[in-house]
Design brief:
The chain has 617 residues and is α+β, with helices and mostly antiparallel strands. It folds into 2 domains: 192 residues, Penicillin-binding protein 2a (Domain 2) (Alpha-Beta Complex), CATH 3.90.1310.10; 339 residues, Beta-lactamase (3-Layer(aba) Sandwich). Helix content is 35%, strand content 19%. α9 packs antiparallel against α19, α12 packs across α14 and α13 packs across α18. It starts with a helix and ends in an 11-residue tail after the last helix.
Length: 617
């Protein structure tokens, strides 16, 4: 009699065994597919092939006159593939490369640290020592065959052909993990622009990498190109840049600002091209070349004078009386004043117990002489009557919003969009700001100091220079930019955009007339010259310590070629530093050189240092 129970159990057990075997097969196949395939592929390819990365030459940089500013010099990186290291004579390698054994150990540990080097793999090349100059490389090249697992990668070092313009040019350094995460173009050991145009134009300057696929034998020796180079890819060189900077002007500006803190910015009004952008104190760009960069950066970051801070675009300051031009324009357009409206000034603005002081001059006076003499009283009265005008604005908040909109249209309160990293926006207060600050209980007198560029108002030197360019153009500006041309490409549309303010051209003519009178016999008279017509406006910005000295102007009056802002921290009256420095800069650019008398004046200002150590800042 057949035992059906036994027969069924046999089939069940067999089925279970079959399922177990199949599950193991499926699991192994899955593991190999998901976890093992890439690894085996990497191992196989690393044994048979060597992908030699060919780095493109980085684009070089010129000034507007074709003067070479930044170029490349051949250099080499020492790379290592950890899995291939065999019988390494560590002491001999260290001696050949000129490093200590402790440094060798430290570098190897850093390479293996996945927190510092997230792309680490024993099968791929890792940077061991970078940027070795060609002159120091020959001995290592001759002995390379002794160091199995070590390879050479041809690179280049960024070199500077100028001692000036460090904040604009920027520098190049090794990529960080964040750089690699942000852009898969980069691998550990690659280099990237870190500051200045090197950073903002990195995609144009870097080019595209090439590769040579080389065959290796069982001992790792290179046998030649795979399939005669069919898989090779040539590198694409980076694009060259032509800057709008005039390096002779830049050099003069940095010379004039020696021993001072502040900035000089000059713009070509018709194009928005930045002719110079000086931040003082500055530093020699050669300090950022090659392996010394990290050490130099640490030293400069510890410097209390902050030489790495680009004050021209990142420093924010009260604009002082240079701001009065924007106020006059706003009052004219809004109908608060006319060209003949006169306001009193009894050595300042007086209202009840409030007083905003002013220097002595004739009064009452209309707009043009008010600009020429930099009358505080005039512009305080103008703002008072605007914010207090209930027949035109229902509330003070509506009046304040209108005022703010005019300021924004002139390029204040927001970033202008310059093609450099680190631009600050400055501060233009609005109605909400004052509602919060004063708990909805404020009046024109609460904010009267903004009429003369004090109080909560702050601008960057770039924004002050752009104000000069806007007045020179009688009502518009082009986005300021430092790159004039990208080889084989074009500038971003945003850098060529024309921005028209809310003020009619006819009112700009009145402000131009006031700025011209300021040079002919007002606060800017030391800038007057028979060579061309200069228009200017001084600024003396109050500070907790000594006042800041400012100047904003342009020339020639009816065919403007340069608009300029000078800002010297703790320099006192605008006429003390701002005006003479600005006039020298305009002469250099318009005439191409300084006269003998002006050269002597430049030398004198070069050596007029300000002792910041004894002043409250």
């Amino acid at each position: 009699m057949q035992d059906h129970h036994y027969e069924n159990r046999k089939y069940v057990l067999g089925g279970i065994a079959l399922l177990v075997v199949l599950s193991y097969i499926v699991r192994l196949a899955f593991l190999q597919l998901v976890n093992g395939t890439d690894d085996y592929k990497v191992r196989a390819e690393s044994n048979a092939f060597y992908n030699k990365v060919i780095f493109p030459s980085r684009g070089v940089i010129y000034d507007r006159n074709g003067e070479l500013l930044v170029y490349n010099q051949p250099a080499y990186d020492v790379m290592v593939i950890m899995r291939e290291i065999e019988d390494l004579d560590t002491l001999d390698l260290c001696k050949t490369l000129g490093i200590e054994k402790e440094e060798f150990i430290s570098r190897m540990e850093t390479i293996k640290d996945r927190n510092k080097n997230p792309g680490y793999s024993t099968y791929t090349q890792q940077l061991f020592l970078g940027q070795i100059p060609a002159a120091d490389f020959s001995v290592f090249q001759e002995k390379l065959f002794r160091y199995r697992g070590f390879y050479v990668r041809e690179r280049s070092i960024r070199r500077y052909a100028t001692d000036f313009g460090a904040h604009i040019l920027g520098d190049v350094a090794e990529v960080s993990p964040t750089d690699i995460e942000r852009d898969d173009y980069y691998e550990p050991g690659d280099y990237i622009g870190k500051q200045g145009v090197e950073r903002s134009y990195e995609p144009d300057l870097r080019g595209e990498k090439g590769v040579e696929v080389l065959l290796r034998d069982a001992r790792g020796r290179i046998q030649g190109h795979y399939k005669n180079g069919v898989k090779d890819r040539k590198p694409v060189p980076g694009k060259n840049l032509t800057l709008s900077l005039d390096m002779k002007l830049q050099a003069l500006g940095e010379r004039l600002m020696e021993g001072k803190m502040g900035s000089i910015v000059a713009i070509e009004p018709k194009t928005g091209e930045i002719l110079c952008l000086v931040s003082a104190p500055s530093y020699d760009p050669h300090r950022m070349e090659g392996k010394q960069r990290s050490k130099q950066m640490v030293e400069m970051q510890k410097d209390p004078m902050k030489p790495m801070l680009n004050r021209a675009i990142s420093g924010t300051y009260p604009p002082g009386s240079t701001f009065k031009t924007s106020q006059g324009l706003t009052f004219l357009q809004e109908g608060i004043i006319t060209g003949s409206t006169a306001y009193p000034c009894s050595r300042g603005f007086r209202f009840g117990r409030m007083k905003v002081g002013c220097h002595g001059h004739g009064a009452p006076l209309p707009l043009v002489p008010a600009i020429a003499t930099s009358c505080n009283g005039y512009f305080c009265w103008g703002l008072y009557h605007m914010l207090n005008n209930r027949s035109k604005y229902k509330t003070i908040q509506e009046a304040m919003t209108t005022w703010k909109d005019y300021m924004v249209s002139m390029g204040f309160g927001y970033r202008l969009g310059v093609d450099l990293p680190g631009e600050a926006r400055g501060m233009i207060p609005n109605a909400d700001f004052y509602d919060n600050a004063y708990k909805d209980n404020w009046s024109p007198l609460s904010v009267i100091s903004i009429a003369i560029g004090q109080g909560e108002v702050t601008l960057t030197p770039l924004q002050i220079a752009n104000l000069g360019a806007t007045i020179a153009n009688r009502g518009y500006y082009i986005t300021p930019h430092v790159v004039r041309n990208v080889e084989g490409g074009q500038l971003a549309d945003s850098l060529l955009e024309k921005h028209v303010t809310k003020v009619d051209k006819k009112y700009y003519e009145m402000v131009v007339a006031g700025m011209r009178k300021a040079v002919q016999g007002g606060t800017c008279k030391s800038a007057n010259t028979s060579m061309y017509e200069v228009c200017g406006k001084t600024g003396t910005a109050q500070n907790r310590g000594h006042d800041h000295s400012a100047f904003m102007g342009f020339a020639p009056m009816n065919d403007p070629k340069i608009a300029i802002a000078v800002y010297v921290e703790n320099g006192g009256f605008g006429a003390h530093f701002g005006v003479p420095i600005g006039s020298l800069m305009m002469e250099q650019y318009i005439n191409g050189e300084l006269s003998k008398a002006s050269e002597s004046k430049a030398t004198a200002f070069q050596h007029r240092h300000i002792n910041y150590g004894t002043r409250e800042r």
